[in-house]
Write a structure and sequence with these properties.
The protein is an alpha/beta fold and about 400 residues long. The chain has 2 domains: about 120 residues, no CATH class; about 250 residues, Spore Coat Polysaccharide Biosynthesis Protein SpsA, Chain A (Alpha-Beta Complex). The chain has 14 helices and 10 strands. A hairpin with a 2-residue loop joins β9 and β10.
């Protein structure tokens, strides 16, 4: 009886996820799906493209930043795009790599590199670097309408900035963000990256994020186009300075100022490599417990939820009997079906959908480790800093 009840609960969860959570699993909220045909009319017969400054916080990114700067400098954008690189006390020649890349593509005048200072109490390192980049923007008529916050490992196709501005203008958004295409080459990446993207979409259904009537707010920190005036009105980055999950905190702040938009893309890629399981684990462990707001009760609920949603269905499908087995098999099948579009997005075999429970177990272990490190005062570790508040 207990087995049948738990198995039926698992099935009910996946029916809800399939039908009742913004169709998150379909992966249809993309930059290519937005109708921007009315943008030109809103901007005039001859569109007036806004000034934009890209801010790139960079700490020990010498191995990737050159390609990122080159892609920004080569944007097919009618208005000059200027770039501010905030070298966050790197020890590997990040600033030199950025300067060399700008020089190589003839963009020295448009790329400015500033040296980051020590992180003040109460700030996370990345947000402090972004804040310093904002402070380096001049005031007056030359000040930009939008700021593009982008990571140092992100590479853009030439038309992306036009697309971002068109989406922002057509939707009237104060924050427009793209969930960049993550690297998916190593064995660890092929198993974990699609699941990571799937979980993010499940937690923050993009259709709900993009609906001004719903409170759901999220962004992907690798690529965020922000309306500068709205950010200032919201209190600037100072208002979210302590958040480890800075992108979603910023999205929640900005959604109180106006509509926001978040979508998937095939035109922006991350160069960040995770060759081993331990490399990807570090990314999840850094912020997983922060996602639960540091609450032991939320942690217990998350573990129970993961066990019921992901681990119970295959166990009942294989070892159960009667109703428990049928419900377990149905839940496992719905799970694989929901995961299928994300697997296709990352060009992975469809059969991997049935292995999602194993991946879910790994993510659950990462979350537990994140909590233990937080309780030991070593949470939020990233590039030599423990940042958990």
């Amino acid at each position: 009886m207990i087995a049948a009840t738990i198995s039926s609960m698992s099935l009910a969860i996946w029916v809800y996820l399939l039908l009742g959570r913004g169709w998150f699993w379909r992966c249809v909220e993309t930059d290519d799906s937005v109708d921007t045909s009315g943008t030109a009319a809103r901007m005039g017969v001859t569109p007036s493209w806004p000034k934009i400054v890209a801010i790139v916080p960079a700490r020990d990114e010498a191995h990737v930043i050159a390609r990122s700067i080159e892609s920004l400098a080569r944007q097919d954008y009618p208005e000059n795009l200027s770039v501010i690189v905030v070298d966050d006390q790197s020890s590997d020649g990040t600033a030199a790599s950025a300067f060399s890349a700008a020089e190589a593509v003839g963009a020295k005048e448009r790329v400015r590199i500033i040296a980051g200072t020590n992180v003040p109490q109460g700030w996370t390192g990345k947000l402090w670097a972004m804040h310093q980049g904002l402070g380096a923007i001049g005031a007056g008529s030359a000040s930009p309408e939008f700021v593009l916050f982008t990571d140092a490992d992100i590479v853009y196709a030439p038309n992306v900035l036009r697309c971002l501005v068109s989406i922002a203008r057509s939707r009237g958004t104060v924050l427009t963000s793209l969930m960049v295409k993550l690297r998916c080459r190593s064995a660890a990446e092929r198993w974990l990256v699609p699941a990571f993207v799937f979980y993010f979409q499940k937690l923050y259904p993009f259709a709900w994020v993009n609906d001004p009537k719903r409170p759901t707010a999220a962004a992907a920190g690798g690529c965020m186009l922000v309306k500068r005036e709205a950010l200032i009105s919201a209190g600037g980055l100072h208002a979210v300075r302590h958040n480890l999950i800075d992108d979603c905190a910023l999205a929640a702040l900005m959604k109180r100022q106006g509509p926001i938009w978040l979508g998937l893309t095939e035109h922006v890629h991350s160069l960040r490599a995770y060759p081993r399981l331990a490399d990807f684990k570090q990314t999840v462990v850094r912020s997983a417990f922060a996602q639960l707001r540091g609450s032991p009760w939320r942690l217990a609920g998350a573990i129970a939820g993961m066990a019921t949603s992901y681990l119970a269905p295959p166990l009942f499908a294989i070892f159960g009997r009667g109703l428990a087995q049928m419900a377990g098999f149905a839940a496992w099948t719905l799970m694989a079906l929901c995961f299928l579009p994300t697997l296709r997005l990352y060009r992975q075999a469809s059969v991997k959908g049935f292995a999602l429970p194993v991946v879910a177990a790994a993510f659950t272990a990462f979350t537990l480790e994140s909590a233990f490190l937080h309780w030991r005062g070593r949470g939020g570790y990233w590039k030599g800093r423990f940042q958990a508040q």
